[in-house]
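Consider the tokenized backbone below.
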């Protein structure tokens, strides 16, 4: 074992590195994004028991699961969006696994979102964060800490009004900066998707999906426990299921962080 890996094992064993679960529970009550009626929508989670130590299977318990790829804490592959559909190695089973692991840069905007649920991260705000914490490195996961995961009911989490959902996200320039100027691995959010709730009316519509996936970048949605991570200094591991031609996948996102 290399000295670096040996040291990691020692740090984990000694409790100087902690494992932080950034994943929401996945079950029938998991909120699912809604779309206008003219589009096909993703179903919620269905769990059907096959057997549980009974006549159907006396010594074992297992279930059948049914859900959309983009349900709960989930992964967006580049092929998820039309701008990434022709990129090579852009589906869940073809992405190089080394891309699932990277340093985390956590940008805390909880106070802004408490004041305005439609808050958008700007490139100027990113530069302000960098002035304090250093330039975002190539290959980083940029995690937007909004406090949205504190919303425990589906109604509050989706926050849908007569004019559509309201939730924070990225403005176009911020997405362009992260995808092209900073060359990040991807972004992660606490909301149901990586675009703001009102992003269907932006130019272009859903700019984070359009820009990031067009550049071959990745997305993580419905994260939690971002308050347990420092601004820098942690590592995120976000590996989707190896679904053939998969556009995304529910996943267990974990971070290794200083204790």
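A designed sequence for it:
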């Amino acid at each position: 074992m290399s000295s670096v890996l040996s040291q990691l094992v020692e740090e984990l064993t000694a409790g100087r590195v902690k494992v932080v679960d950034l994943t929401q529970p996945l079950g029938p009550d998991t909120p699912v994004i809604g779309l206008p009626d003219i589009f096909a929508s993703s179903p919620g989670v269905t769990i059907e028991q096959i057997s549980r130590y009974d006549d159907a299977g006396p010594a074992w318990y297992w279930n059948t699961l049914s859900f959309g790829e983009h349900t709960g804490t989930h992964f967006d592959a580049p092929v998820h969006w039309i701008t990434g559909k022709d990129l090579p190695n852009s589906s869940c089973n073809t992405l190089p696994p080394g891309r699932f692991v990277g340093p985390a840069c956590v940008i805390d905007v909880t106070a802004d979102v408490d004041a305005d649920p439609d808050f958008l991260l700007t490139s100027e705000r990113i530069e302000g964060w960098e002035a304090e914490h250093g330039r975002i490195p190539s290959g980083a996961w940029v995690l937007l800490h909004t406090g949205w995961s504190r919303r425990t009911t589906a109604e509050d989490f989706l926050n849908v009004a007569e004019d559509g959902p309201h939730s924070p996200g990225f403005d176009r320039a911020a997405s362009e900066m992260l995808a092209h100027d900073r060359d990040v691995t991807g972004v992660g959010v606490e909301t149901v998707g990586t675009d703001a709730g009102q992003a269907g009316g932006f130019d272009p519509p859903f700019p984070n999906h359009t820009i990031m996936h067009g550049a071959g970048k990745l997305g993580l949605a419905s994260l939690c426990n971002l308050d347990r991570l420092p601004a820098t200094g942690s590592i995120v591991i976000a590996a989707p299921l190896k679904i053939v031609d998969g556009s995304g996948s529910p996943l267990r996102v974990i971070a290794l962080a200083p204790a």
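The chain has a mean pLDDT of 97.
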